[in-house]
Specification:
Elements (H helix, E strand, L loop, with lengths): L4 H10 L7 E4 L2 H10 L5 E5 L6 H4 L2 E4 L2 H11 L3 E2 L9 E2 L3 E5 L3 E12 L4 E7 L6 H7 L4 E6 L7 H10 L4 H20 L2 E12 L4 E3 L3 E4 L8 H4 L9 H8 L3 E4 L4 E5 L2 H13 L6 E4 L6 H12 L6 E8 L4 H15 L5 E7 L2 H10 L4 E3 L3 H12 L1
Parallel strand pairs: 14-16, 16-17, 17-18
Antiparallel strand pairs: 1-6, 2-3, 2-6, 4-5, 7-8, 7-10, 8-9, 10-11, 10-12, 13-15
The structure holds guanosine-5'-diphosphate (GDP) and manganese (II) ion.
């Protein structure tokens, strides 16, 4: 689960990770109020969306007077911000962060993330902050410092110094940095983060270090033990169909293609997406209704996929085990009755109660194409979207 920069910075403050003074604002008037409380200029007006690259897209601007704060707030609030992370459709800006402007001596990069391969928390840092870190990693990987922290041992002093020396920090800034990194690590572990990224971490002229940007992603599988963090979720930033699917415990991810698919089991869903690709089409989603789905869940899954305007055909691939084919078929029939099907639907169904399932589908008189096996299903679905 991602959160906004302003929310991340509030949490950082609680862990004594230094950030500039500032507050969120939801209107032009509020932006002015926050700015007047900062006691000076420049003031930074920052769009709050769950995507990076805001600066380049025109979503981060410096104001040198109260009039400028208001005119920039007015310009940025309500704009559709397009960055390399939002896709061409962009994202509507509904919130701002108003912050005290900082004098930047050097922009650095610092992040913590879970490295599954080594089962450690990896700290990544670079003197090439403020810019596209993916590009730095690709072109000059030697400019990225990596330190692996064994979660059982915790973060040691020598590892903090390794990062600090790697960043070539002036000695006067070392103590501040050491506190920042050690507190950031505590924050990361205590909240089950999967990623914390500060780009840029800045060094000021008076050897201060602080987080100028803050990106935080929590491990959603651990959120059950952080009920307080759940309140930070912003549904405006999530795909509406994914939000709808999560209400019914459906494992659904919206993708770019035009073949919707409904599958039971994550492994089968992955394989089905591969098969769709292999046949020359592209999946519009990942949808795993789960091993023990009810017909109501199936109905909701079908309705959600049909509500996606990109979807030009649907492939149903069910291997009836715990989820019986008759229950699945009933869900499809119920959904079709409610929403109507006006696009091609190909069904491949095998397993427990398959004959009853097929009979339910046939008796309903729906416009479905059945497939004899998986490759037949793939051919038919690719044909349907051609
Ligand atoms: P991003 O573009 O979405 O990653 O947003 P950032 O929060 O990283 O801001 C983008 C850039 O704006 C930073 O890399 C800085 O160069 C600049 N910026 C942000 N805050 C300040 C500030 O207080 N003072 C100055 N001079 N520049 C700032
Ligand atoms: Mn940034």
């Amino acid at each position: 689960m991602k959160i906004h920069e302003y929310q991340a910075k509030t949490l950082f403050r609680q862990y004594n990770v230094p950030v500039p003074e500032g507050k969120a604002a939801f209107s032009v008037e509020e932006a002015g109020q926050v700015a007047s409380g900062l006691g000076g200029f420049p003031v930074v007006v920052k769009a709050q969306i769950h995507a990076g690259g805001r600066g380049k897209g025109g979503g981060v601007k410096l104001a040198h007077s109260m009039e400028e704060v208001k005119s920039l707030a007015d310009e940025i609030l309500g704009m559709t911000l397009v960055t390399h992370q939002t896709g061409p459709e962009g994202r509507l800006v509904q919130k701002l962060l108003i912050e005290a402007g900082q004098k930047i001596e050097k922009e650095l990069y610092l992040s913590l993330l879970v490295d599954r391969a080594t089962a450690t928390v990896v700290i990544m840092a670079s003197r090439d902050g403020g810019m596209d870190i993916e590009e730095v990693a690709e072109k000059t990987p030697e400019r990225i410092i990596k330190v692996h922290v064994n979660p059982l041992m915790g973060l040691s002093g020598y590892q903090i110094r390794q990062v600090g020396f790697g960043l070539k920090l002036p000695s006067a800034a070392m103590k501040k940095f050491s506190g920042l990194l050690s507190n950031l690590y505590k924050f990361f572990v205590a909240n089950d983060c999967s990623l914390v990224e500060i780009n840029p971490l800045i060094l000021t002229a008076d050897d201060d270090v602080l987080a100028l940007d803050a990106k935080v992603d929590f491990d959603s599988n651990a959120l059950f033990r952080h009920k307080d963090l759940l309140e930070l979720r912003d549904l405006d930033e999530e795909n509406p169909l994914e939000v709808e699917a999560s209400k019914y415990n459906l494992n659904y991810i919206n993708l770019d293609g035009n073949v919707g698919n409904i599958v039971n089991g994550a492994g089968l869903a992955m394989a089905t997406m591969d098969i769709i690709k292999n046949a020359g089409a592209t999946p519009a989603n990942f949808m795993d209704v789960g091993g023990g789905a009810s017909s109501e869940q199936v109905e909701n899954a079908f309705r959600i996929i049909l509500a996606d305007e990109k979807v030009k055909a649907v492939l149903i691939n069910i291997f009836g085990g715990i989820l019986r084919c008759d229950i699945f078929a009933q869900g499809v029939v119920d959904a079709a009755k409610k929403t109507g099907i006006n696009i091609p639907v190909v069904v491949r169904m095998e397993g427990t109660n398959v004959d009853t399932g097929k009979k339910i589908l046939a008796d309903a008189g729906l416009n479905l194409t059945s497939a004899v096996d998986l490759s037949d299903a793939a051919q038919k679905i690719a044909e349907a979207v051609k």
